[in-house]
Design a protein that fits this description.
Layout (H helix, E strand, L loop, with lengths): L4 H8 L1 E5 L3 E5 L2 E4 L5 H10 L9 E4 L16 H17 L3 E2 L9 H7 L8 E4 L13 E4 L2 H10 L1 E5 L2 E8 L8 H12 L7 E6 L1 H4 L3 H9 L8 E3 L4 H7 L8 H11 L12 E6 L6 E3 L7 E3 L12 H12 L14 E4 L7 H11 L9 E4 L4 H9 L2 H8 L2 E2 L20 E4 L14 E4 L2 H10 L5 H5 L4
Length: about 475
């Protein structure tokens, strides 16, 4: 019997089996940030434990950092404290830190891939659920809790139960205006936020293989939104081309050896999955969410369901009350107030280029506040080099510094209560972008279209307009 990609990577990292079904898994890479690491460092101090493998840890400040005036002292007290503690802890324990002002600073799930820290065949963790992003490279990557952050710091291992395996195939060709974000919102709308619970998901099929690495990262990023432990995609030439020449990628003969190993990782033809689903790319249209979890998604021109097998009438009714929407009605052409283009889901250079290409010489609607937040200093530098920042500013967007920004209601970039925000982030829970904020998840293209028109818009209408 053959092995899946997940089996090959997971099994190669099992240190020992524990009676009862648990396994001790070795962790190759550990990413940390300012929010979930302070308690872990304090735990090491209390137990008088050393940091076992500081060379396997990379730290950055991203979640609770300002995206304006990053060259000035942080004014928000909690943010300032968290960033200061991260700086002090990394200095004390001699951990590499890409803090504010460092050219490598950025969202942890953006900098790992762009620096070549993320690689096929490794195990990777972070105190953040969207660590699944790194699975796009054929890594077993998943989020962990703060107590587990401390365990990895002390032992470089975790005690875990091996998840079950699911494969999701997306076959065919995407239509114009349909992106990787639409694929994953479509899949989650079919399976629900609990459809992947207990599984590691491998994404496969011709539509997945045709995606860029940025698109693949978007897919794997939102595996968590359907309850999966993580998601991954088999490495191929697209993967190798992306990683070649990155700052921390292998070089020379080490590169050749690494690629030779990476080529052995894809799932064997005779491998079995516990569950398998298949979807047609041609059936996917630009997607938006209408409710208060990422599974409440639909095509942009569809009507909000009154009930469904996944959510039920009561669940949808509750969401409609919060969102101030009406079941049975469309949200196409709903007036919106904010647009946020950023987050670990959609803040890479490809996303920014797509937005600029769509906007062209159009202007942000006067009623809309639209911000673009690059995922890292390197993305921002590239955007500036290409003139994307000036084009966005000229169109009426704010172009900010790197950080998680308005993805979560933790930092200063909150959406006011009662306001609608079309967001390229990954979650639309009640209060996710600020108390009372109403979030509509969408792709960068759909978000850009909303910014221009001032309402929820089918981006295909803009693509059909003459230049």
């Amino acid at each position: 019997m053959g092995k899946t990609l997940f089996d090959k990577v997971w099994d190669a990292h099992v240190v020992t089996e524990i009676p009862g079904g648990n396994q001790v898994l070795y962790i190759d890479r550990h990413l940390i940030h300012e929010v979930t690491s302070p308690q872990a460092f304090n735990g090491l101090r209390r137990r008088e434990l050393p940091l076992l493998r500081k060379d396997r840890i990379v730290a950055t400040a991203d979640h609770n950092v300002p995206t304006k005036d990053q060259d000035k002292p942080i004014s928000e007290p909690l943010s300032a404290k968290q960033v200061r503690m991260l700086t002090e802890n990394c200095a004390e324990f001699d951990v590499p830190l890409y803090g504010l002002g460092h050219p490598y600073q950025g969202i942890v799930h953006v900098i790992g891939p762009e620096l070549g820290i993320t690689r096929p065949g490794i195990t990777m963790v972070c105190g953040d659920s969207h660590t699944s992003t790194h699975g796009a490279f054929g890594a077993v990557a998943f989020g962990i809790g703060t107590s587990q952050v401390e365990q990895v710091m002390a032992t470089q291992c975790l005690l875990l139960t091996k998840p079950k395996k699911m494969r999701i195939n997306v076959e065919g060709d995407l239509s114009p205006g349909v992106t990787a974000k639409d694929i994953i919102l479509y899949v989650i709308s079919k399976l629900g936020t609990g459809g992947g619970t207990g599984y590691f998901v491998e994404y496969a099929g011709s539509a997945i293989r045709a995606l860029s690495m940025e698109g693949r990262m978007t897919i794997c990023n939102m595996s968590i939104e359907m309850g999966a432990r993580g998601g991954l995609i088999a490495p191929d030439q697209t993967t190798f081309d992306y990683l070649a020449g990155r700052e921390f990628s292998p070089q020379g003969k080490d590169w050749e050896a690494a690629v030779a190993y990476w080529k052995t990782l894809p799932t064997d033809p005779d491998a079995n999955f516990d569950v398998e689903h298949t979807y047609r790319a041609e059936e996917i249209t630009p997607m938006v969410t209408y409710g208060t979890n990422p599974g409440m998604g639909m095509g942009v021109r569809e009507s909000i369901p009154v009930s469904s097998d996944i959510h039920g009438a009561a669940g949808i009714a509750k969401a409609m009350k919060y969102m101030d929407l009406e079941a049975g009605k469309p949200i196409h052409e709903l007036a919106i107030d904010y647009v946020f283009i950023g987050s670990c889901t959609n803040s890479r250079i490809e996303d920014l280029r797509a937005v600029v290409d769509l906007v062209g010489d159009k202007q942000v609607a006067p009623s809309v506040t639209a911000i673009v937040v690059p995922g890292s200093q390197q993305v921002a530098k590239q955007a500036i080099a290409e003139g994307l920042d000036q084009k966005l500013i000229a169109a009426g967007f704010e172009f900010r510094g790197a950080g998680c920004s308005a993805c979560l209601g933790m930092n200063e970039d909150k959406v006011p209560a009662g306001k609608y925000c079309v967001s390229t982030s990954n979650r639309n829970f009640e209060g996710r972008q600020g108390p009372g904020a109403r979030t509509i998840l969408a792709s960068p293209l759909t978000a850009a279209a909303a910014a221009i028109t001032g309402k929820v818009t089918d981006v295909r209408d803009l693509l059909l307009q003459p230049a």
